From TrEMBL:
Cofactor note: Binds 1 [2Fe-2S] cluster. Binds 1 [4Fe-4S] cluster.
2Fe-2S ferredoxin-type domain boundaries: 5-99
Stated name of the protein: Fumarate reductase iron-sulfur subunit
One GO term of the biological process aspect: respiratory electron transport chain
Gene3D superfamilies xrefs: 3.10.20.30, Alpha-helical ferredoxin (1.10.1060.10)
Domain of life: Bacteria
Organism encoding this protein: Desulfurobacterium indicum
Keyword Cytoplasm set for record: no
Enzymatic reactions: a menaquinone + succinate = a menaquinol + fumarate
GO molecular function terms noted in the UniProt entry: 2 iron, 2 sulfur cluster binding; 3 iron, 4 sulfur cluster binding; 4 iron, 4 sulfur cluster binding; electron transfer activity; metal ion binding; succinate dehydrogenase (quinone) activity
Keywords associated with the record: 2Fe-2S, 3Fe-4S, 4Fe-4S, Iron, Iron-sulfur, Metal-binding, Oxidoreductase, Tricarboxylic acid cycle
Pathway the protein acts in: Carbohydrate metabolism; tricarboxylic acid cycle; fumarate from succinate (bacterial route): step 1/1
Similarity comment text for this entry: Belongs to the succinate dehydrogenase/fumarate reductase iron-sulfur protein family.
Pfam entry (one): Fer2_3
Length: 322
């Protein structure tokens, strides 16, 4: 007989017809080695409680439908083995909850429509460049490996929403597109067959690109090991190239770059002025005064480092490599 462990699945239940708010219900079941969270949910539905509601389809980490939180961490239920989670958390109780940042429809099923609407708005499809894509089917439109490499990883996204569910910018900023949405914009911005290419950074900019706080949560939890925050970084650079600099984030990045590349040092004293203008200076006045009183005010003029010319060569070489 296969080895099995008794495990309590503490599942969040919510039926909008009867419940004011979600509550937990425990299901104690025998879990054989290798059983996934999704298989356990199906077992409960088929053998204990047919009303348990969740999503799942491919059971192969492809369709992106089965994401849930397991002990607070969003994961694909079909890719998450229960024994491994028990060992990781050192407990035989696993809390299974719906994803965050989305309204719960019932039990573990969430309403994906807001994330989906945002995705639609950012044009997540190839807009053919007539100069690159031939009119007839007789010729191929080739993407070379070195071009593909730039965006290839982002084509692995299965739209599972895991990154979206943990993103603090999504939580607090209504118009913020979201991590996988920025990943999709970047994927097409780098595609040589696309008609908009880097112009797509303007779409990203309109959807609060600079509000990402670079917490990297999206990258940490993506089941496909995609780094949406990298897309954000590249799109920011593209948007600056396109002249979209009228916001504190872009101005901060430009001031940072100018300071470091001209002297080899960061001029912290002028950064608030360059980033936020006079408003920034006034906002930072109490902090600046306390620095001044404690003798910790950074000097307004920064002397270049000793080998500044060598440093500039390194900067220009790294720009060429990019
Ligand atoms: S790095 Fe940006 S996009 Fe990713 S979770 Fe944090 S705020 Fe959201
Ligand atoms: S980027 Fe990763 S976590 Fe986000 S939707 Fe795509 S596959 Fe899921
Ligand atoms: S069931 Fe398709 S990704 Fe899990």
């Amino acid at each position: 007989m296969a080895e099995a462990k008794k495990v309590i699945l503490r599942i969040s239940r919510f039926n909008p017809e009867f419940d004011e708010k979600p509550h937990f219900q425990d299901f104690e079941i025998e879990i054989p080695k290798g059983m996934t969270v999704l298989e356990a949910l199906y077992f409960i539905k088929e053998n204990i409680d047919p009303t348990l509601t969740f999503r799942g389809f491919c059971r192969s980490a492809i369709c992106g439908s089965c994401s849930v939180k397991v002990n607070g961490h969003p994961k694909l239920a079909c890719k998450t083995q229960i024994w491994q989670e028990i060992e990781r958390f050192g407990t035989n109780i696993l809390k299974i909850e719906p994803l965050g940042n989305m309204k719960v429809i019932r039990d573990l099923a969430v309403d994906f429509s807001e994330a989906e609407e945002k995705l639609k708005k950012v044009k997540p499809y190839l807009i053919p460049d007539p100069e690159v894509i031939p009119d007839t089917n007789d010729e191929e439109s080739i993407v070379y490996p070195e071009e593909m490499e730039k965006f290839d990883k982002f084509t692995d996204c299965i739209l599972c929403g895991t990154c979206y569910s943990m993103c603090p910018a999504v939580m607090f900023i209504d118009d913020y597109a979201g991590p996988f949405q920025f990943g999709r914009i970047f994927r097409f911005a780098e595609d040589p067959r696309d008609g908009l290419k880097k112009e797509r950074s303007k779409i990203a900019y309109a959807f609060e690109l600079w509000k990402c706080i670079r917490c990297e949560r999206c990258a940490d939890i993506c089941p496909k090991h995609i780094h949406p925050v990298e897309a954000v970084t590249h799109l920011r650079a593209m948007s600056i190239e396109k002249g979209l600099t009228l916001n504190p984030g872009a101005r901060h990045a430009i001031a940072f770059y100018k300071s470091v590349t001209s002297t080899g040092m960061l001029n912290e004293a002028i950064l608030p002025i360059m980033s936020k203008g006079i408003k920034g200076v006034l906002e930072n006045m109490p902090v600046a005064l306390s620095f001044l009183l404690k003798g910790k005010m950074p000097p307004p003029i920064v002397k270049p480092i000793e080998d500044i010319e060598g440093f500039k060569k390194v900067v220009s070489l790294s720009a060429e490599v990019e």
